[in-house]
Amino acid sequence: MTFEIYHQLGHRDKWSIDSYQQDGTGDGVIISPRSRKKANVESLSQSVKSRAIFDPQFFNPNAVIKKMDSYDFYPDTLMPGGFDTGRFPNYCSIVADNCVDFQIKNNFRYLVIPTRYFDGAPDVEQFVQNQETNFVTPFLDSRDHHTPKKDAILQLVLTGHMLRNKPFIEYLLTWITGIEGIKGIYLITEIVPRGPQITDATILLNLMNFIHILHKNKMIVVLGYLNSESLLFSLANPSIVTIGSFGNLRIFNSTMFEETDPGEIRVPTYKIYSPVLLDWIDAPYVDLMKNRSLVHDKFFGDNKYLDTMFSQGYNGSAQSIEPYKHYFVEISKQLQEIRSLTGANRYARVIEIIQTAIDEYSRINESGIEIGRQGAFTTQFATAANLFARDQGWRT
Amino acid sequence: MAFKTESEMVEAIKRNEQLHKLMMSGKTLMQEEMSGLFGIPDLIFVKKNSKKRISYAYEAKLSNWSRALTQAFRYKAFVNKSFVILDHDHINPALSNTDKFCKANVGLISIDDSGNVQCYYNPYYEAPYSPRLENKFNEKISSLKF
Amino acid sequence: MNDIKCDDVICNYANPLKIYEGGQRIVYRIDHPIYGYAALKIGYYASPSRPIGWELARIEREIEILRQIDSPFYPKNYDFQKISESRYLILEEFLNSPMLEDKMEQFNSPLSALIFIKQLATGLKIIWDKKIVHRDLNPKNILINEDNSPRIIDLGIARVLDSASITQTKYGGPLSQDYAAPEQHRYNKALINWRTDQFNLGIILMQLLLNGHHPFSPQLVEGKSIPDNIMNDNWYRQAITETHLLPIKSLVTNMLSFEQYGRYRTFEDFMIDLNFCLEVMR
């Protein structure tokens, strides 16, 4: 089954939208109200909006941060005295009406039913009850009073604790697949602590199985805030995978939705995505690899943005546009190649890509370039892929 | 006896005469925690004489040699020689992996709280591997006095 | 044995003929001036003076459901009354049909079994659409009409998903332990939905294909008991590896999935696969 590629929008979302529209990287966007004011969402072209998914970002109902205050559906804004868990059930219908109204008026592709973020692994029955009472029921009721009736997808944030808790996940799957009125799930994962890549094969496999079960139930599965694991998760047949520019759009962190002082913003050196290594490599290391002739021509891909970054005198930083546009082009190429394959063929190609990465990291480490544990995720990806493939009967 | 904190270790390194003997003789410039490059070295030394100038970076760690090596390797982007300095009480795991230090051309030194320094690998001089960061480094030190 | 007082009631009806006498109720066939033959059910409901008996709310729920339905798949309800001495009276369509339990051999070919299950599912959809779950599907609660079509009876423990459920009294969980889905055995009321009935249907389908043998029976797959085997996901999978049953392997495996999320999510998806199996079998 093929899948689509969506840009996870955030800071500098114009880069993502331009890449989508001009470079053909992707099939749509997921809009972030945290980073784009209401008027600027409304003024997006119909061609963008009709393929877009709007993420209400209700994760932390106590905070309305950055550009979210331009919207009229946040509980903290609507409720007199601010958000209060005890009083919220009295307001959830109004919140739902306003949020549904906004999404339908703008003709987004789906109606997203938001979720509240919960840390750890709360009591699953209470978790489900909370989601049902405060979000699912009021949003579906509101949807039924609007025309046209958009297909609804339910947002869900799974933490590492939840993913390691089999009874929790099974109860959740039973609940989700039993909800009438939704077409699918918009799934976000938060693994804390973690580095740039997920290095836990158990969590990766549990996620793949979760996605696979939803797929078997013929549900739409949108995977948000993905990093290189999008390639791995493609094996589980999601409907949409995401690509994001900055690190916080490829790795979900709930603290982004807290009203905390950001502190001094450090601007690190820029990184360049390598489709061979499946990760972003610090620019100085890229220089070193090239100088030592460790990398072949296509090691970092092949596009105009890479040409710019490799040109004499390029003085980029983490705030430069080229590293991100380059990433969009290269990851899209990889995902587009994979989505043209199915089943065992897709697995064969994905495992080949991962194995190549493993071999190349090994070669780089052997050469004396100390990138530390940067490539450690590749063996975990391989383990998860192989176990999943075995369960599907794609390998013995 | 082991150091209690890395700061304590860094202070000991700064005062250490033996360490300076490992470096080229000449005028000395020292800087702590120089940021805005590629990682933040605990100590930077630049030694200058009439013939040449050599820059040194030091990453001090109580025990985590592997992480120290990764960080010290970063500093080679803008200095000529980079070192890991470990608390002598925790040097053995690193000694089992000196081949990694050799391959990476990163120096390995231990220091104890009596100020005794031992060098297990002294890296050879190399030009920094990132000309861009080397220029940036030079700009930073140009405003400092030897 | 039975001491259900009924003389004062049946005397009001023509030609009463006792057709069933159980611990909780007695059933007569009577001649009704409007409906012709009708079934007259009299029983005690539970009360403080008489704690043994069905909950009145449970009986009323069944009546309410039947009155909403006007379908050949369900018996018609004509009347319901609370009468003296904590008794109730139900007047409903008289069904002179045998139970599936006694007619299983009629459906032992894969094609006939699938047709029967499809008819059952079509009938059940009427209550599923009303957010009602039967919860007690088993060969005793399915009657066979003359044309071999099913008639579904005994909605006594059916659960209306949108309303507060009846509190379980001393009857505890589901009435038919041998047909109950895992979530019923776990008394997880929150997870009871149409997929619970789907599991029951899966058992019935397999039972038809196995000439009346229960797929979870220890006689087929060892284990301590049928309910125990249900809870251990231990059923006679071997049967669907036989060549003539292979086409329905996927259908049955899904219907009998231990976890609800392994069963068909929507009725439409279920029917697509069921119809596909029918086409293959024809």
Structure, described:
The complex is a heterotrimer of chains A (396), B (146) and C (282). Chain A has 396 residues and is an alpha/beta fold. Chain A has helices spanning 13-22, 38-42, 46-49, 75-78, 92-105, 124-144, 160-163, 166-178, 201-216, 229-233, 283-291, 304-309, 322-339, 343-366, 377-392; strands at 4-8, 28-31, 53-54, 111-113, 152-159, 184-190, 220-223, 240-244, 271-274, 279-282. In chain A, helix 10 links the parallel strand 7 and strand 8. In chain A, helix 5 packs across helix 6 (124-144), helix 9 runs parallel beside helix 15 (377-392) and helix 14 (343-366) packs antiparallel against helix 15 (377-392). The mean pLDDT of chain A is 94. Chain B is α/β, with parallel strands linked by helices and 146 residues long. A 6-stranded mixed β-sheet of chain B has the order 1-2-3-4-5-6, sandwiched between helices. Chain B starts with 5 loop residues before the first helix and ends with a helix. The longest helix of chain B is centred in the C-terminal third of the chain and has 12 residues, at 131-142. Chain C contains 9 helices and 9 strands. Chain C has helices at 7-10, 56-68, 110-128, 182-185, 194-209, 218-221, 226-231, 249-255, 267-281, and strands at 14-21, 25-32, 36-44, 77-83, 87-93, 132-133, 142-144, 150-152, 159-160. In chain C, helix 3 packs antiparallel against helix 5 and helix 3 runs antiparallel to helix 9. Chains in contact: A-B, A-C. Chain A binds chain B through residues 269, 282-284, 287-288, 291, 315, 366-373, and chain B through 37-38, 66-67, 69-70, 72-74, 77, 100, 103-106, 129-133.
Defining key terms:
heterotrimer; B: 146 residues; alpha/beta; Trna Endonuclease, Chain: A, domain 1; 34% helix; C: 282 residues; alpha+beta; Transferase(Phosphotransferase), domain 1; 9 helices
How do the strands and helices of this protein lay out in sequence?
The complex is a heterotrimer of chains A (396), B (146) and C (282).
Chain A: E1 4-8, H1 13-22, E2 28-31, H2 38-42, H3 46-49, E3 53-54, H4 75-78, H5 92-105, E4 111-113, H6 124-144, E5 152-159, H7 160-163, H8 166-178, E6 184-190, H9 201-216, E7 220-223, H10 229-233, E8 240-244, E9 271-274, E10 279-282, H11 283-291, H12 304-309, H13 322-339, H14 343-366, H15 377-392
Parallel strand pairs in A: 1-2, 1-8, 2-3, 4-5, 5-6, 6-7, 7-8
Antiparallel strand pairs in A: 9-10
Chain B: H1 6-15, H2 17-22, E1 27-32, E2 43-48, E3 53-61, H3 65-75, E4 81-87, H4 92-95, H5 98-104, E5 107-111, E6 117-121, H6 131-142
Parallel strand pairs in B: 3-4, 4-5
Antiparallel strand pairs in B: 1-2, 2-3, 5-6
Chain C: H1 7-10, E1 14-21, E2 25-32, E3 36-44, H2 56-68, E4 77-83, E5 87-93, H3 110-128, E6 132-133, E7 142-144, E8 150-152, E9 159-160, H4 182-185, H5 194-209, H6 218-221, H7 226-231, H8 249-255, H9 267-281
Antiparallel strand pairs in C: 1-2, 2-3, 3-5, 4-5, 6-9, 7-8
